[in-house]
Design goal:
199 residues, mainly alpha
Length: 199
């Protein structure tokens, strides 16, 4: 056993001595200027002694800073804004903006022309009952599941309200879109239209 150990050790040392050395490539990581010039000459490119880190535009040209363009806004920087604005200048600016305000009075809601579709805006204005207050009798067949399924066929509650009125609503509800009988289908709410007129 001892002799075998010695032989294996000697063989391992001999193999280690035979391992070829790896030559140094000369790369220092600092950007050898001579190597850059040689590589450029081999590729037929003009030699550039300095590598620019400036950003490039779409054509490959360096983008130069525009003194008229301040770059990103500094409006979130209190000190920068405080240098340009004062309480008095803010008050003047607000007063100028107030003078530019225009109050536009609401006018009558335009009627739909050249169509046979119901005008849900006019319907909303002409009704006064709150949402959920039953005015019309409904069939016991109008279940929540049926209402959800049929309301799902429309892109919006306004579209469902138009269809509901076109097919006999608010008195009749053949599709089951208004199970509580308030005259408003698929959770359509006339409040915003009424509020706009009453302002």
């Amino acid at each position: 056993m001892g002799m075998r150990y010695i032989v294996l050790t000697v063989m391992g040392l001999a193999l280690a001595a035979c391992e070829p050395s790896i030559p140094n490539s000369g790369y220092t990581g600092a950007g050898d200027q001579d190597q850059i010039l040689r590589d450029a000459a081999l590729e037929g490119l003009p030699a550039q002694s300095d590598v620019s880190t400036a950003p490039l535009d779409a054509t490959g040209q360096a983008i130069t800073a525009n003194p008229n363009n301040p770059g990103l806004s500094d409006e979130n920087n209190f000190n920068a804004v405080a240098e340009r604005q004062t309480i008095e200048s803010d008050a003047e600016r607000l007063e100028r903006n107030r003078q530019l305000y225009q109050v536009i009075e609401p006018t009558a809601v335009p009627m739909r022309s050249e169509t046979n579709r119901p005008n849900i805006v006019q319907y909303a204005i002409e009704t006064s009952n709150p949402v959920g207050v039953q005015l019309y009798t409904r069939s016991f067949l109008n279940t929540d599941a049926r209402t959800a399924r049929n309301c799902g066929k429309y892109a919006s509650s306004s579209e469902a309200q138009e269809a509901f009125l076109a097919k006999g609503g608010p008195k009749r509800d053949p599709q089951g879109l208004d199970p509580d009988g308030d005259g408003f289908a698929c959770y359509w709410d006339p409040t915003s239209f009424r509020s706009a007129v009453n302002r």
